[in-house]
From TrEMBL:
<dbReference type="Pfam" id="PF07486">
    <property type="entry name" value="Hydrolase_2"/>
</dbReference>
<keyword id="KW-0732">Signal</keyword>
<feature type="signal peptide">
    <location>
        <begin position="1"/>
        <end position="23"/>
    </location>
</feature>
<protein>
    <submittedName>
        <fullName>Cell wall hydrolase</fullName>
    </submittedName>
</protein>
<feature type="domain" description="Cell wall hydrolase SleB">
    <location>
        <begin position="98"/>
        <end position="207"/>
    </location>
</feature>
<dbReference type="InterPro" id="IPR042047">
    <property type="entry name" value="SleB_dom1"/>
</dbReference>
<keyword id="KW-0378">Hydrolase</keyword>
<dbReference type="InterPro" id="IPR011105">
    <property type="entry name" value="Cell_wall_hydrolase_SleB"/>
</dbReference>
<dbReference type="GO" id="GO:0016787">
    <property type="term" value="F:hydrolase activity"/>
</dbReference>
Length: 211
């Protein structure tokens, strides 16, 4: 049990004046004030040494300490995960691998913002694959562009996987201000003029769906 300074100070004062819970009881030498004070200090130090460090919120480095650069990302351990992780990593690879690390994190935010929104499916895989079975209805172009979806750039996929893991572990979403949509600067979808733009990161413009 950790003793606060005021409690410990009170004990020292009581012991130094010879006051105990039974003042008329003669204490043995082993319970003399000096010995007891030393024992209490020892217990205090032991307790402090055993107090666990603050629990980290998500990744080994701590989700609140995300740095959007390649050096930081390269320092993160290689990961693999379940279906949700695989769907997010794949989406980042095909939709944003040519972007900066920051840009890829931003795309991950969009996908997870959709998962949290009642207007979209409630899982990463369902969000990524929404509309993929209907012509011109897919939400993410790689799911219906007819191209081969094999992973050919191992390093890029490794980076996407790390970003997916960090985001799924609870990293803060502070890049896109709640964006649910994005597009490249080379296109201008019909909905873009109706949605408030929240950010531009690299070649992507980000928007939040109106309430």
């Amino acid at each position: 049990m950790r003793l606060c300074k005021s409690t410990l100070g009170g004990l020292i004062l009581l012991l130094a004046t010879g006051v105990t819970s039974h003042a008329d009881v003669t204490t043995s030498q082993s319970n003399a004030p000096v010995s007891r004070i030393s024992g209490l200090l020892s217990l205090e130090h032991s307790a402090l040494a055993n107090v666990p460090k603050a629990t980290r919120k998500s990744t080994e480095k701590g989700s609140s300490q995300v740095s959007y650069d390649r050096v930081w990302l390269a320092d993160q351990p290689a990961v693999s995960g379940g279906q949700e992780w695989a769907c997010l990593a794949k989406a980042l690879y095909f939709e944003a691998r040519g972007e900066t690390v920051k840009g890829q994190f931003a795309v991950a935010e969009v996908i997870l913002n959709r998962v949290d929104s009642g207007a979209y499916p409630n899982s990463v895989c369902a969000v990524v694959n929404q509309g993929s079975g209907r012509r011109n209805a897919c939400q993410f172009s790689f799911t219906c562009d007819g191209k081969d979806d094999r992973i050919r750039e191992a390093d890029a996929y490794d980076a996407a996987g790390k970003i997916a893991q960090v985001m799924l572990s609870g990293a803060p979403r502070k890049l896109t201000q709640g964006a649910t949509h994005f597009h490249t600067t080379q296109v201008r979808p019909r909905w873009a003029h109706r949605f408030p733009r929240t950010a531009q990161i690299g070649a992507h413009l980000f928007y939040r769906q109106p309430l």
